[in-house]
Write a structure and sequence with these properties.
Elements: H1 2-27, E1 34-40, H2 44-58, E2 61-67, H3 69-79, E3 84-86, H4 90-98, E4 102-111, E5 113-118, E6 138-141, H5 147-158, H6 162-166, E7 169-173, H7 176-184, E8 190-194, E9 204-207, E10 217-224, H8 230-242, H9 244-250, E11 254-255
Parallel strand pairs: 1-2, 1-3, 6-7, 6-8
Antiparallel strand pairs: 3-10, 4-10, 4-11, 5-8, 5-9
């Protein structure tokens, strides 16, 4: 019964987010001097800066729709509008590509999963195994909504501790930013996030996951096949994959070398 309720909750979350995305479209100017970019919520800080630089250089305004990678994919499939898709992992852009939604795609940076804990690490978390301790309250990303949720559970499964950790999960967040916020507010003792998402957060810190126990992902970007501004979309994709890499590095990401 609980699994059924969780499944219904995921469907409702995605449906609401998709409807919100459609409503958002009605508010965004479709001026020929602007483009619409679907971006993973965990990429917001570098993408905001990149958008400002791009607009300053080319006079093209960048309007963002930030949400979980899977939520964005659902919106793209529903509305078939927009210009660029930038999820938190290649799985989502490959899925979009297989559906015929992607024209040109590039790789930008690496996404490294880590364990986030409140400042001072009160539960002394120093590895994945500690997430199985009965006293530890864990927050995970919703695998039906965001890239880190799907990947986080794959990491737990790979290490043979998924069921043990699941017993300690107090909630599942729709975006990685929500995980960080809850950890910073000490509403949970630990959660799996991307390394760069801790940038600028003073009330939280990270513990690394051993490389052999981890799944490091690549961040892609692609122009959408149904874009009415394909030239501008491809220009933005190229801009992010070249000049944008330095911005990503400034926010704690490791850039992808082609």
């Amino acid at each position: 019964m609980k699994q059924y309720q969780k499944a219904i909750s995921v469907i409702v979350i995605v449906a609401i987010a998709t409807i919100s995305g459609i409503a958002y479209w009605n508010q965004v100017s479709e001026s020929q001097e602007s483009i619409m970019v679907y971006s993973g919520a965990g990429l917001r800080k570098p993408m905001d800066e990149i958008g400002a630089v791009f607009e300053n250089e080319y006079g093209i305004q960048v309007n963002y729709n930030y949400a979980g990678s899977n939520t964005l994919l659902s919106q793209i499939q529903t509305v078939e509008r927009g210009d660029v898709y930038m999820p938190g992992a290649t799985y989502y852009i490959e899925t979009a590509d297989n559906k015929g939604f992607i024209d040109e795609k590039k790789l930008v940076a690496y996404h490294t999963p880590v364990i986030a804990v409140p400042k001072g690490n009160p539960e002394n978390i120093d590895g994945l195994k500690d997430l199985t301790e009965n006293s530890v309250k864990v927050i995970m990303g919703d695998p039906g909504a965001c890239a880190i949720g799907r990947l986080g559970y794959k990491i737990l499964e790979m290490n043979g501790i998924k069921e043990e950790v699941e017993k300690n999960v107090v909630t599942k967040a729709a975006t990685v930013n929500e995980i960080v916020m809850m950890i910073a507010q000490s509403q949970a003792d630990a959660g799996i996030i991307w390394r760069a998402n801790i940038y600028g957060v003073k009330k939280a810190e990270i513990e690394n996951i051993a490389e052999e126990n981890n799944k490091i992902k690549k961040i892609p970007i692609g122009s959408l096949s149904f874009s009415q501004k394909s030239e501008k979309a491809e220009k933005f994709v190229e801009f992010v994959s070249v000049k944008g890499k330095e911005v990503f590095e400034n926010y704690g990401f490791l850039s992808y070398e082609n």
